[in-house]
Design brief:
The complex is a heterodimer.
Chain A: E1 5-9, H1 12-41, H2 54-85, H3 93-113, H4 129-151, H5 160-179, E2 182-186, E3 189-192, H6 196-213, H7 217-231, H8 238-252, H9 267-279, H10 281-293, H11 301-304, H12 306-328, H13 331-337, H14 341-370, H15 378-411, H16 424-430, H17 432-462, E4 469-473, H18 486-490, H19 493-510, H20 513-536, H21 540-548, H22 552-577, E5 586-588, H23 593-604, H24 619-625, H25 660-668, H26 684-687, H27 695-704, H28 714-734, H29 744-754, E6 758-760
Antiparallel strand pairs in A: 1-4, 2-3, 5-6
Helix pairs in contact in A: 1-2, 1-3, 1-17, 2-3, 2-7, 2-14, 3-4, 4-5, 5-6, 5-7, 5-8, 5-22, 6-22, 7-14, 8-10, 8-22, 10-12, 12-14, 12-15, 14-15, 14-17, 15-16, 15-17, 19-20, 23-29, 25-29, 28-29
Chain B: H1 10-14, H2 34-55, H3 65-82, H4 90-97, H5 100-113, H6 115-118, H7 141-150, H8 161-177
Classes of the chains: A mainly alpha, B mainly alpha.
Amino acid sequence: MKNEKTTVVFDDDIVRKFLIVTILWGVVGMLAGVLIASQLAFWKMNFNIPWTSFGRLRPLHTNAAIFAFVGNMMFAGIYYSTQRLCKTRLASDFLSRVHFWGWQFIIVCAAISLPLGLTRGKEYAELIWPINIMVATIWVVFGVNFFWTLAIRREKTLYVALWFYIATILVIAMLYIVNHLQIPTSLLHGYPIFGGVQDALVQWWYGHNAVAFFLTTPILGIMYYFMPKAAERPVYSYRLSIVHFWSLVFIYIWAGPHHLLNTALPPWLQSLGMIFSLMLWAPSWGGMLNGLLTLRGAWDKLRTDPVIKFFVAGITFYGMATFEGPLLAIKSVNALSHYTDWTIGHVHSGTLGWNGFMAAGMIYWLVPRLWNTKLYSIKLADFHFWIGMIGILFYVASMWVSGITQGLMLNAVSSDGVLKNPNFLDTVNSILPMMHLRLLGGLLYLAGFILLAYNILRTIRMGKAVNGTIEVLEEEGHGAEAGFGFWKIFLNPPVMYSLLIIIFTMMFGVGPDTLKFFALVMLIFTLIAGYLHMELSGSSWGEWYDRLLNHAMPFTVLTFLAAAIGGSIQIIPTLIMHNKSHIEGYRQIPYTPLELAGRDIYIREGCYNCHSQMIRPFVSELMRYGAYSKIGESIYDHPFQWGSKRTGPDLHRVGSKYPNSWHFKHMENPRSVSVGSNMPNYGWLIEDKTDLRALESKLKVMIQLGVPYPKRTMEEINQEAMAQGKLISDNLQKEGIIVEPDREMVAIIAYLQQLGKSEKVDQSVKE
Amino acid sequence: MSEQLPQNSPQQNEDPLRPHSFDGIQEYDKRLPNWWLWTLYLAVIYAFAYWFWFHWPSVGGIVDQGVEAEQELNRIQMAALASGGAEMTDDQLWSMSQEGASVAAGKVTFMANCAACHGPELKGGIGVNLVDTTWIHGGKPTQVVQTISNGVLEKGMPQWGKVLGKKRILEVAAFVLSHHTKDEIK
């Protein structure tokens, strides 16, 4: 056996498959983006059809861009590089194919179900429960295939790209499962098990870290493989890789609550969200530095090689977005930026700039190699680069102007103590030109990507698919060396010092005063001791880490622990402390059956994409919307509907503000009562009948979730709903509007008129 | 940026490469830039200080934003009320409704906030007709101001006083009254 050479043939067929669908779904996702951008600028683009209205298509756009476009791109990059970094073919051709076809099937299911209004009503987690199960299953298939490949690797040491892939697979599994816990009420519908503030926290722990571990870490791993390959230069700094990897994985998880600043979220969580976001700046920039500085000595390629152009611009956008992120996470900045287009611009400098350009660079580098030919046209790729770049700049700059303008206008209070812009639509109309500019930016970017598709198509037709091979010595053997026992993972200075630092920091954070002092002293002592220990022990810490890199399982365990700490410390106390009895003086009144049905229509139409239900404690919001939202006022909301964007005004206190007839006319044609509104018409709500039969199982699940409903028979539920519907229908009739009590319009009016109603509870009385 | 570094510059030769190579990829082991380290350190120190200040009850303690905002709102509204001057009489309001500037200003406010329900022609819709001769809640100029300010909640007329402020309320009232003759207002 010794010194006997064998040839390993890589499974590049699966990479080609994933690459082609990346381009396909990329076009689809961006097209959806352009369409919804046009709907915001020109309401008629909603076409008065349910499945093309903004509220249903916006989730389609985000899901397609994240999970279909970036997802497939990530799988292509991970499968290509992992085989080469492990010097082995992927563990199982079968699992690879299951992964591929399973993922495409999920995407098709999503593309059908979202326009139909089948949604969970949680951003980036809209897909309904049967699809959730498929996603989790396919993700496990991916994970098994990946870790199995690691287990049979011929290259003992794990390269930094693989660290990021490991973190991606583990953390996404954790986030996805927790945020999708739900109880089905039917085959196509379920309620999340968390409600109100708990659901808000879990949702943004997930939402923020989907950005971190779906859109960032896998792409960093891809950068660590493809950037040095394309630049033909060594990576800038190994130790920077170590420091920024571990700090990124540890810190990112804590930052989720910055999506809920100045809301009813408990202050301690808001503070954690803000300070961890600030601490995240440097770790993020560590990745940017390692990417950009790898180009030292090869900057000339920036002029000639489109791949390098895309990578450098992509990494620069990453740096920009990860500077802007901490900035927006400062509470006072967030007071202005939150709910506005600034956030939209921020996200798109990440997705269009970082994800889109890294994908383009990777595709332009990979395709000629996978089809053994040259790129059809470098000129065309250059053109794609510039048109894409201008597109992003238009997009991001217009959203900055739009967000800051609208934020300032909405918050402005005049000297005589009233709002300067009492009419919300005045602020919408003043940012209309920016919406047009954003549409132009999106169109340019899409055009650039279509050029890529054309260029790649021509390249593929010129070439012939080939699979990469390497010669390996059999003696290199399979698998990792033995002898890194369970305790060896933990019982070593670097891990122990880290653990002590975390423990003392926690004690400082939440302990009583006396313990705080002790903890702070101990923390400083540990830091000094750790530093001295590291200096004195020469290279032994580095050697320990090098040894750890030969052991995939221990490495994986430590990565998981680092990523799991933050979420546990935020979520577990929230589940215990901020449960349904923690209400701060105000308790939500549970919905009647008809209101609950109306709420599900509200969620189905995706109203939360444009309307928040969270009045922040600012003078201008109190003037505009009414009393600020308290933590107890949404405890029965599964899912929570606090929202993240105000394309239209907040709705938390809209109940009883307008007559029923106003709501009817407004939803039939918003412009009949709100001149200049860009909201779609919801005419079908007048025709369609409310699904009252579904209420029995829905109410049953609500009871299971802790909502204090009396036990009612189907008959009673029906009667109650019809009686309430009749009241509204009769009231409308007085205004000359004829609508049957069993129509969806009546249900959603019932829901809207109840919003913001809560009972004051004497806090001195023990719950 | 586009200038080429000489491949054999002394600085580059000094950089030690790590011994291992992964699929042809090698790694330097450069020291972490100081400015980068200090960005991290300062952020961590700030985080501790922030927590210390806001979440150590005996030191600073976080302010209740909600209570603070409510007090501020109260203060602003009291000040606005105090500076509002004396109440206007029916006659003063009527003369205001005959004066172009006030009526024009009132029209702008009306179209933006009231036309949705009362119609751009003031002939009603969701809200009542304002140009007929029926006054459901009183037709005296002071009564009209009252109705606009305090609303008629049970009929879906919002309280505009806190939203629009006194000045704009008077202008809107003047605009509405300008559609009537003096005989019609009682």
